[in-house]
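S.,

Sequence below, as promised.
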Amino acid sequence: MLVVLSGGGTAGHINPAIATAEVLRDRGVEVQFAGRPVGNEREWVTAAGIPFTPFEAEGFHRGHPTTLVKGLAIDAKSTVLVKQWFEKIKPDAVIGFGGYVAIPVGRAAKQMGIPLIIHEQNSVMGWTNRYLSGKAKAVCLTYEHAKSGMKDASKAVLTGCPVRASVFSTTREEGREALDIPADARMLLVTGGSNGARHLNQAMCALKDDLLAREDLYIMHVTGPKEYDSVAEALALSPEEQKRWRLVSYTNQMPACMAACDAIVSRAGASSLAEISARAIPALLVPFPFATADHQTTNARAYVEAGCAHMIADDQVETPEFARLVAELVDDADLRASMTAAARAQNTANAAQAVADITMAAIA
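The prediction came back faster than expected:
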């Protein structure tokens, strides 16, 4: 049995695909991945040991009609090439996770009668998934709100967002040991995503003295590569302070960080929020305000309404309210316990299994 997965552009599309592939492989299913020849997906997918086949795909800018003509021509050519590839490998099902490359892959599956399953990570359905949802046998959703982007909501199944096994595999004790954090200390993780978050970084710098006054508090602050130098200069941490305020531009120890922390301040991208939910980490969310259709705010709002987190707008992080929310998250153990319980009720940990179940049922 062979399943082809496709998606691209961001970690929000690619990580859930890899997480689902891991579950399918554990069940004895062969998996392959179709992605763009350039982009993050090739590197991340091949690192996960999944065979990768490239196909050209291009989006369009609504204000420039010529980009639509070019994009459609590329997608049409790639659809033919995907169909030729499918003739050779004979996939039993295709799962699309968003990104423009999923369009020719999904089209080819529909035209050849191969079951197509779609997964939408965000609360606002992306253009690719809106287009392909009409061709799909089932549409897996992370948020109920995403149904509004579908013409036929009867195909929708609420699964949550798949998270890679590595997120679960590190224990709190192992995370603390890897980061050299005392077992009885409190730990706050701060991250603005892979590109960092300037307002968030600046706001954290302003809280330096207040936070370090808590002698049992350790902070892992991931600035993003472009932000590191300015944050390091603003913080001006002494050697003694650096023992408790760990400043890094990027870390490949994020599973350890998430396992070790007591709370997190984070953006609300699909992949980040799924991992926070899967580990049931009490959170203060700062949505990226320029995400398409402001979907990070909608993502965060659904999570906050479930009692799993607090939220503050990006343009409000340099205010006393942000300082109050961070202090509350760090100091109120009862609040953290209630957020953890609410996050566990979301059942995110089983999302990859659910998507795999739906895929297997589509094949049967």
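DSSP finds 16 helices and 13 strands in the chain.

Coffee later?
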